[in-house]
């Protein structure tokens, strides 16, 4: 009885070690394959129209973004949600002073990303890039 229990425990330990090695190896290869090519990024991204709005300080801004998603279906959904993108931008920039806008563009991009992901049902926004900006 004791020998049988030792054999079973040894077999389970060996199987556990083999499973752990396999999981770690497959996880590493998945991380390497998840890096996207520039063609995939461009294909799964959406470029907003140029938006002109005012800041809290009274200055005007013309700005344009490229919004990168994780899949093509998310791009199609973003095109339909264009009015929500504009709404978020207008509301966020209306709160900003000129100095805050000039130094906090990354914060605006992150806010846009987070708020859009709250609306998205098909995929998600992974990055937001400012591609054109004029402050008057």
Automatic annotation (TrEMBL):
It is found in: Cell membrane. The keyword Acyltransferase does not apply. One of its GO terms (biological process) is chemotaxis. Keywords: Cell membrane, Cell projection, Chemotaxis, Cilium, Flagellar rotation, Flagellum, Membrane, Transmembrane, Transmembrane helix. The chain crosses the membrane at residues 6-26. Belongs to the FliL family. The keyword Membrane applies. InterPro entries: FliL. Controls the rotational direction of flagella during chemotaxis. It is a single-pass membrane protein. It comes from the Bacteria. One of its GO terms (cellular component) is bacterial-type flagellum basal body. This is Flagellar protein FliL.
């Amino acid at each position: 009885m004791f020998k049988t229990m030792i054999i079973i425990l040894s077999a389970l330990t060996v199987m556990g070690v083999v499973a752990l090695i396999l999981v770690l190896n497959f996880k590493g290869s998945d991380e390497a394959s998840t890096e996207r090519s520039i063609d995939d990024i461009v294909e799964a991204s959406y470029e907003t129209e140029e938006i002109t709005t005012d800041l809290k300080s009274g200055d005007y801004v013309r700005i344009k973004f490229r919004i990168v998603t994780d899949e093509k279906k998310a791009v199609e959904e973003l095109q339909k949600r264009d009015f929500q993108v504009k709404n978020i931008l207008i509301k966020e920039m209306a709160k900003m002073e000129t100095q805050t806008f000039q130094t906090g563009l990354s914060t605006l991009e992150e806010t846009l990303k987070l708020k859009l992901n709250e609306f998205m049902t098909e995929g998600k926004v992974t990055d937001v890039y400012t591609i054109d900006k004029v402050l008057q």
